[in-house]
Amino acid sequence: MSRQRAKAFAPATVGNIAVGFDLLGHALDAVGDTVTIQRLDTPEVVIADILNADVPLPMDPEKNTATAGLVRLIAEKNLSFGFEVTIEKGIALGSGMGGSASSAAASIVAAEALLDEPLSALERFDYALTGEAVASGAAHGDNLAPALFGGIQLVTSIDPVRITPIPAPEGVVCALAHPHARLDTRKARAVLARDFDLHDFIHQSGLLAGFLAACFHNDLEMLEAHLADILIEPLRAPLIVGFEQVKQAALAEGALGCSISGAGPSVFAWCRGEEAGQRTLDAMSTAFRDAGFEVDAYLSPVDARGARLVGENQ
Predict the structure, then answer these.
(1) What's the pLDDT score for residue 76?
(2) 8, 46, 227, 303: least buried by Cβ within 10 Å?
């Protein structure tokens, strides 16, 4: 007999990782969203409750990032049953930490546990992507792939789906500082509606190529030389009060690189080991506090685990 109830957790993520806009992301195991699903006798999706959300979220299943994919799943798989969903938000909305992807990933992993037949990895990604598109207005997988599968993920296409895991450099950790401010993803994407200089595009392509080569060769010197964003960061930085001070604080502590996490306003830095990561995180947090914000501070390996079942699943 199939399970009647399942609970899943999916981690926060760092989207773009500076060099790979809409292409790269990695999991951040310090925080995430949790979704609990109870099997219903009727083929429908019902949102029972949304816990710990800092702003009101849609109760319409077709408009909520955690449930839009489930609506599609029921229709395409012609299921005779449905899902009652409870969402527990651990990631602040508009934080740049992949909250919509985390909810969508946790939801599809919990729902899959209630199916009579498992989904393939690509199906799991595709259904969860439906929810991500509802949240941001665009279907991009840089947050969703690491939220689902963990580690560093490169998404070069979503139709067809092409995802490549990237090896994490040994000992590298991520320090992430989240100021208590909200930056809507749609607003952060709107400032990018412009033409880019061909020379800058070539430069950024070289940074991405060098970053990927550094990961595969476990070369931290090469990584430090390439972990930068000259295209997107300059346009989004003015939207984040205190960004330049936070970045300089991280680099002064010896960070390999520092940039905006996803759409912001969170800022991340990659560091050589936990001790350096903690020093960097403290410096970044102090800089944000000096800019007038309360701060949540997270330290995580860059190869953190992805979405998984948790608790008692019946």
Answers:
(1) 97
(2) 46
Query: 């919509």: which residue's tokens?
Result: 100
Which CATH number is 5-166 given?
3.30.230.10
CA 44/CA 244 separation, integer angstroms: 48
| Alpha carbons 97 and 309: distance in angstroms, whole number | 21
Residue with the two structure tokens 């992993």: 109
The single-letter DSSP state of residue 19 is: T
Distance CA 17, CA 152 (A): 9
In sequence order, which residues have a C-beta less than 8 Å from that of residue 4 and are 6 or more positions away?
Answer: 38, 39, 114, 314
The secondary structure element, H or E, covering residue 156 is strand 152-158
Helix (H) or strand (E) holding 75: helix 68-76
Distance CA 90, CA 11 (A): 9
DSSP 8-state class, residue 57? -
DSSP assignment letter at 62: T
pLDDT digits (tens, 9 = 90+) for 182-240: 988 888 889 988 899 999 999 999 999 999 999 999 999 999 999 999 999 999 999 99
62-105 per-position pLDDT tens digit: 999 999 999 999 999 999 999 999 999 999 999 999 999 999 99
The string of DSSP letters for 228-293 reads: --SSSHHHHGGGSTTHHHHHHHHHHTT-SEEEE-TTSS-EEEEEEHHHHHHHHHHHHHHHHHHTT-
Query: Omega of the bond prior to 265 within 30 degrees of 0, cis?
Result: yes
Domain with CATH 3.30.230.10 in the chain: 5-166
Q: Which CATH class is domain 172-301?
A: alpha beta
Q: How far apart are CA 137 and CA 170, in angstroms?
A: 36
Cβ atoms 150, 303 nearer than 8 A: yes
